Amino acid sequence: MIATHYVRAVRLNRDAVPSFKEYPFSLPAIRHLESLELNPHVTFIAGENGSGKSTLLEAIAVAWGLNQEGGSRNFYFETRASHSELKRFITLVKGARRPLDSFFFRAESYFNVATEIERRDAEGVGGRIIDYYGGRSLHEQSHGESFMALLFNRFVGEGLYILDEPEAALSPQRQLSVLTPIDYYQTEHYQVTHDFLVNPQRMLDRLLDSAPKRPERKIVKPRVKRSGEKSNG
Ligand SMILES: Nc1ncnc2c1ncn2[C@@H]1O[C@H](COP(=O)(O)OP(=O)(O)OP(=O)(O)O)[C@@H](O)[C@H]1O
Ligand SMILES: [Mg+2]
User: Fold this and answer.
1) Quick one: pLDDT at residue 10?
2) Does the CB atom of residue 28 touch ligand 1 within 6 A?
């Protein structure tokens, strides 16, 4: 598979940041960010709940010209104001190629994308948008089914796809079927998982070695009274 970057890196303009003590710059994913180099195929962002992954993804999507609540460049709806100022401090280092397509998927607001498609189709201006998603209302499908409809109908390839928690809707079986088209076996995520399965002890040792150490607790063994021994009390 030949691929060159659409976006090579995501840079935080640190000199312009007013304070790293305040949201959103105080979040772990942002506080230490200088330049996030992207893989030309797929980049996985993993981290603890609340570490700022969604905040960062939203800023990348908006910097690319996508709707902050999800959808393509043609979506403009907004059901709640974004409080994140981060997008003004993010620079996308673009590659030589331009993608043919782009889409921002967020599991938490995909419902709103489905509603927006129905609203615009009801207005009847231009072609039916839902036909690009397989033709069946996304609201009439389960969470997982509607995500699969998006993936296999709307995502035409050679695109920049920003996905926040795409796996949330999918069964393990469907997660595996989704990994095939994105050439999962070329990714660092696959290599790390593979290494883990081949030699779990080595990976566990490494993880436990880097884990924060708990302060040692002195273990006081309860004294068992032997038969015949006199009690002090
Ligand atoms: N307007 C706001 N003001 C202050 N903090 C906020 C605001 N909006 C969100 N946060 C906080 O920012 C943090 C990062 O949220 P974010 O949704 O980016 O995390 P995440 O890494 O995607 O977490 P998860 O794995 O649960 O999806 C959270 O702790 C959240 O409470
Ligand atoms: Mg999140």
Assistant:
1) 96
2) no
